[in-house]
Every structure is written in C-alpha cells, then in structure tokens.
Amino acid sequence: MPSSFRASATPATVNLARRTDSVKRPSSLQVATLRDCSIDVPLSRHWSGSIVTTGTPNPAWHTTKRGETMSIRATKRQGRSRRLALFTGIAIAASVIPAAAQASANSAAAEKPVRGGNITAGIFDQVLTTCYSPNVPNSALGVLKTVYEGLVEKSSDGKFVPFLAKAITPSADFKTWTLSLRPGIKFSNGEPLDAAAVVLNLQALSGDYYLKNTATAVHTAGSGIPFTANLRKVEASGADVVMTLWTSQVDWLDTLYASGRFFMRAPSTIKSKDECATKGVGTGPFMFDTVTPTNVKVKRNPNYWRKDKAGTQLPYLDSITFDVQQQPTQRLNALRSGKYDAAQFTSAGEVKQILSVKSSNNLGSVDSKDSFYPTWWPNQGIEPFNNKNARLAFAHAWDNASYYKLRNCFKGKCLGNIPTSIVGKDNVMYNTKGFLKFDIKKSKEYQEAYKKETGKDLTFQINATLSDESLNNAKASQQIFAKAGITTTINQEDGATQVANAFPGLAAAAAGKLNPYQAYAVLLFEGEGTGFILPFLQQNVFSEPGNNAKTERSPLLPIAGTALNVTRHKDTALTDLLYAAKQDITKARPAKLKALTKYIQENAVVVPTPTLMYTYGFGKKLRGYDTFELAAGKTGIPMTNAGINWTGIWVSK
To answer: How many angstroms separate the first and last alpha carbons of the chain?
Structure first.
C-alpha cells in the first residue's frame, strides 16, 4: 500500500509517460541493441515451448479497451483444448525457458555487462520491516523486491505471466488454479523452492499458518489475509500446487501479483519472527545485509538461479545501499553530486526534480507508465464523512484542474493526467458516468444540508508525509477546499506510519484499530484490471456470498476482513454491485464493473486525484536500467511505483 498524499496530474500540455515506459539516457551515450538473455537453472533442461492452460468452454467473448482480443490457449483436464479470450489482461501460458534477465539496451555499443560495483540509491519511503506487516510503500517495496521474487510478474503489455512459476492453469469455472514451478530454484540459504515451500507461503499470506500457530506466528498475520480471502485451500499435488477458491475469479493472477507484493519467502523466514523482521530470505538476486528503517544494504546472492546469455552469473552488482531521503531536493542534489548513483522520484509534488533529472546531460532516467490512479478515501466510519452530504460536498469542492496547475506543472511542463473517472481509460472499470465535477455552488448546497442535519460546519483533517513537497501538496489541497468554504487541518507524519495505521494487521483490526484518518489520499488503484482495486472496496472480504471461511477455516477471519476497507463503509448496494461483477466470468462482467464505477463516483465513495507516475534517475555510469526481460520474449515493466528491477544493472568501467 503506497504512501499517503502522493498524487499527480496533466491535461494536454506535456505528457512524459503516456501509455508506454519512457527512457532517457545521458546524451553522451550511444544506444546499443538489446541483447537476448537466457539463463541457467541447475538440473533443468532448456527448451522452447508453450505450456497450455486449462481454460473454459466459453468461446472468445471480450476485447480489450482498444478492441484488441487477447486470446489464451487453453486445455481442459480431460485433454480437450479450447480458445479463451480474457479482458482481464492475464497471460497464463509461459515458456519453459526460465525467465531471462535484463540486458543492457542503454549501454554504449561496444560495452558488455561486467560484474562488480557497490552503489547507493536514494528512496523516499522508510523500510519498517522485511516481514509481512506493516506494509511497505512504493520505493521501500522496491528494496524488498531485490531480495524477494513472486510467482507472477507483469509484462510490459499489461499481462500477468508466471515468473517463479512455470505455468498457472485455471479450471473452466476459474475456481481451481494449478501451478507448476520452474525446476531447480533455491532460496539464498539453500532451501528449495518446491511445492511444499509455495504451499507454506500461501498459507502464511492467507492466515492459515498463523491460525495453526497463533503463539509463534503473529508476525505473519498481515494484510495478505484479507487480500487472499477468496483462497479456500492450497495443497501440494506432487510437484504442483493446487489453489482452490471459494468463488470464481478470472483475475486470480492479479491477486497473486498483488501490485508486486506477494513474495516467496524461505520457510525459515516464515517460521522465525526475528529472521522475518530484518533478515528475510528470498530467491532474488540479492540478500539483506543490514536493515534499518532509513538505510538498507543488500549484497549479491552468489547462488542466484539466473545467468545471462554469456553465462555470467547474475546479478552484476556486488551491493546496493538504499538510503531514505524524504526531501526530494536533497535526493536530487545527492544524485547530481555522485553521492547517490540512482534516486527515485514521484510526480506527487516532485515534478520540478523529475524535470531537472530529464534535462541533465549527465543523468539518465526511466519513467513508469501513467497507470496509477490515486484517490481520496473519505472515512465513512467516523465524522464528518459518515454523512453522505459531507462526502458530496467534498467531491464537488475538489478541483483537480487547480491542483494540477499548482502541483503537477513546472514552467509549463506537466506530468500525469487530470482524471475523468476513478481509474484510467485503459482500465476495464473506466466509466465517466456518475463522475462528480468541481462545482462550488453544489458543494455549498451539500455543506448547508450537512449543517442542517448535524448542526456543524464541514471541517476535516488531511494528511502529509514528512517531506516538504508532500506538505506543499496538502497545503495546495487546503487552498482548494478553502475556496469552497471548507476548513481543513493538516496531520503530518511519516508515510510508512500512515500506511500501517490505514491498513492494520490482524491484531490491530481485532482491537478495533481501523483506518483513523478522516480523508486519506492514497494510491491503491492501478493498471488495467481489477485485482488490486476490488479488495479495497469491499465491506468485509470474508462476507462475500459463497465464502464460508468463518465456519470452515476460523471465526477469527472476519475480524481481518475489514482491514482493507479504507472508507469503512457499510454500503449494501455497493457490496451487491461489487460481488455481481467480481464473480462474473461471462461477457457481462465489463458492464457490471462499469455500473459499479458509476455508483462509486456518484456517491463519492472515493474521489480521484490527478494520475501518478514515478521516475528513477541514474548517474552516467549505470547501465541496464531500461529493460526487464521475462520468459518467451516477454519484457517486464522497467519502472513501477516500486522502482526498477536491479538484477541486470551494472556499472560501466
């Protein structure tokens, strides 16, 4: 879950990352052709092929936002094959060729990747743990991803593809998913990534491990429990893993990806509170060396399972030190001076710094896609937004265009987009119907109605992190609400602390410590699908029709089921619309999702802010940052809210 008050925007002025990732290299460099990379996995055979997937008897029935049908080859368990087209953006078939590593497309033509080098990267989020809870936001997530890897990755075309997994196969009704693993992969401590390890990991994420070991496994009880509420059971079947769901879910791979958050941890890490906290063990290219909230050093995993095409063991770097610097100007200055070899920035108030990186002949950069959709989450569990008139007054007072001009532009150049829905145009939920526009007159009418009902003027508190630019974001919002006659105050605290408070673990949820913030601005929605959207809109994820976890698994689970409900709503109409769309596996699903969006917008359940993007800046000697190669010719997304994948980064000598 990302840090609070990191939002951004742009109308038709300048869009530096629209639809595709953008890479800028130091002008002194020649650009080399991307080298194909393959990898060596111990005890594995290298061959090219396609693992077909279990599908559905339904024919192709949906197209993408741009009208492009996405076909997935499918095979039923009885051996019959079918064709399946999913609007979900899921790509289930995977090559048996192990996932390739990054190449060096941004290197000079004569250069080849070399091993060695110790670098420092500046980030803006604290790393409070390497364990399950509290969640780490944005740039801190990128630190964990140097050590941990997931079963699923996301390709540059928006599809979810197996990564540590070799193939993931759904049943015809999308209630049973069978996973096979790439052979020979081990955690950095030598433990095998086998079916038993995956089962243990999924049991830890879903809370089953905690429920069986309540005295010793509290450290595993995180927000993965409500996020995987639809997982009924997971078990090994020989070398495979079988996941059985409570209800049909076409985007289960999206859940397994979880915005890049669902990692495979070594069994020893899951079983040890101390190891999990600061010395977690993964399958990734690096290992944790030293960990504090503001400074983390990772060192090369000498037994990493991937090599490049030339046979060079990955990763190339010896170590990376991640230094937390919440002030973007200081982060930029450290990058310019060489103190930092790389630094991450967000368009949420850091546009000036991003544009400075891009204008420098001595720095390179890579941008994320413009596919992150921050929103305000008025808290319906407490005053004043337990009143609908207050929420409608808020929505009509919020002026995206003014915020964009104030915080997303610098000297005529702007980042992001002004929203016309709670999600972007490429998302299956996109719908302009019900979208509440800025209208001071209407806001004041709803303010008056609120005062008539409660006897109070509408006032509330907004949040900022400890960075100056985040505080400036909050002050700009204050100005906007003031123009509509609404008084606000600012609560400033560390972003990681806000995330921990807004998304409580099981113990906190059991104690009734749910989201305490009146109006929480946060990035939750992203991408083209719904897997990282719908869980946050459910009243209680364990109350979904067809989910009998309370009886079959534990009566404690519904306590955790509200942890993702940031608005703390109890709206049954919203709930009915959501489950009708979520469980649908027919061509009617997109229309149901759009109906849900319309309801959310017209009732001000959440209120969108300008879209958000992220940028990493690099010193002139770093190479390999613009490409993240996956299997079967697929490329991963070079830059996300978590940053880049560091496996193929190297230092030019």
So the answer is: 38
